[in-house]
Design goal:
Length: 369
């Protein structure tokens, strides 16, 4: 369900041309405001979807996805299967492309996701625990393959599932020295990981929740016999909680903890993932973070929000890294209720951390899972 969110970007590109037509699929019959609920429920066939990227680690960029809907929500009675091809590039030379398929089977009792993609990613690498005094330019030239399957446990709010992830490519580190003949250090790398996960979800809305809890426990295993780089494991836990403070104010809290064992390759060590913090800038074998967000409703369609968070990375007790690193972030943003039937809002967030700034186009909640 989470990957339905990019559809809204495609809908918005059509809204301006249709907004004067009060009976169009982009107007809500309740208040005649711009709304894409009807469009999403009746949509089937091929839909081009623009992709807009604002991640500080790779720069600004864009692309397009061509998504095929196997029927409509009204025909299926639930979310239809979706097949999509996508591609894009950013200002720093990063590019990517691939295919994915989402399946919602047996009246949403089984959820499937499969992806194959090719990427050439450029970013500044700061090392585990931000240990390097100056970042090293890094390039990942890689193929990725993902297979994931989840099953609802009877009539409960629990899902149990498994995921296989394979990464195969070449990593290039460009040391920050001014020697024209030096071309950097390249080496082949491969990840072959099997994960099992348990999800619990009581949110009132998976897109923009205001009440309920989402929790996930996940364990990941890799070994050389699977084709991976080494024998290692990772554990992660996520807790998202939402509630009302008043008629107009809601609060959300996010707690996340991640652990990677000693032999985890440095390109697979977890990092702090928060708005305003460039991806992979802060990595460590132990990562913990806390975020809090307040939303205030201005009227039926519009709301403003503020958020703050803190993340901490730490080395293993017997590891070669001896220092902890922490980063704080603060930000603000706004949302507009785009699809009343689904409770889906969209807008922008602006976030600052200790040394960085980022802005983000957000569909649904920034913590969408």
């Amino acid at each position: 369900m989470r990957l339905l969110l990019p559809l809204i970007l495609g809908c918005l590109s059509c809204t301006a041309a249709l907004s004067q037509n009060k009976s169009s699929a982009f107007r809500d019959t309740l208040d005649n405001a711009i709304d894409v609920s009807r469009y999403l429920t009746e949509m089937k066939g091929l839909l081009p979807v623009p992709i807009i990227m604002t991640e500080p680690a790779i720069g600004y960029g864009g692309g397009i996805a061509l998504s095929y809907f196997h029927g409509s929500i009204m025909e299926k009675g639930n979310i239809p299967d979706i097949t999509s091809g996508f591609g894009g590039l950013t200002e720093n030379g990063t590019w990517f492309g691939g295919l994915f398929h989402l399946g919602f089977w047996k009246q949403d009792r089984i959820r499937y996701m499969g992806l194959i993609g090719k990427g050439n990613i450029n970013f500044d690498y700061y090392g585990p625990n931000n240990i390097l005094p100056e970042p090293v330019e890094m390039n990942l030239d890689t193929w990725m393959f993902v297979q994931q399957l989840k099953f609802r446990i009877k009539e409960t709010d629990f899902f149990i599932g498994a995921r296989y992830f394979n990464y195969n490519g070449t990593n290039t580190l460009q040391l920050p020295i001014d020697i024209p003949e030096y071309s950097g250090k390249s080496f082949d790398s491969e990840l072959s990981e099997l994960s099992v996960m348990l999800d619990f979800d009581t949110r009132d809305n998976v897109f923009t929740p205001s009440k309920g809890i989402y929790a996930q426990l996940k364990g990941t295993y890799s070994d050389e016999w699977m084709g991976g780089a080494d024998f290692y494991g990772r554990l992660s836990g996520v807790l998202l909680a939402f509630g009302d403070l008043s008629e107009k104010t809601t609060i959300g809290a996010r707690i996340e903890t991640l652990y990677a064992s000693e032999n985890t390759p440095f390109w697979a060590i977890p990092g702090i993932n928060m708005r305003g913090v460039p991806a992979v800038k802060y990595q460590g074998n132990n990562v913990n973070l806390l975020e809090v967000q307040l939303n205030y409703k201005l009227n039926y369609r519009w709301e403003v929000l503020g958020f703050t968070g803190m993340g901490v990375t730490a080395p293993l007790d017997d590891g070669w890294l001896k220092t902890n690193q922490s980063v704080r972030s603060v930000g603000t943003g706004f949302r507009y209720l785009l699809a009343r039937v689904f409770g889906l809002s969209g807008g922008m967030d602006f976030a600052w951390s200790d040394e960085d700034f980022g802005f983000y186009i957000v569909m649904g909640h920034a913590w969408a899972r």
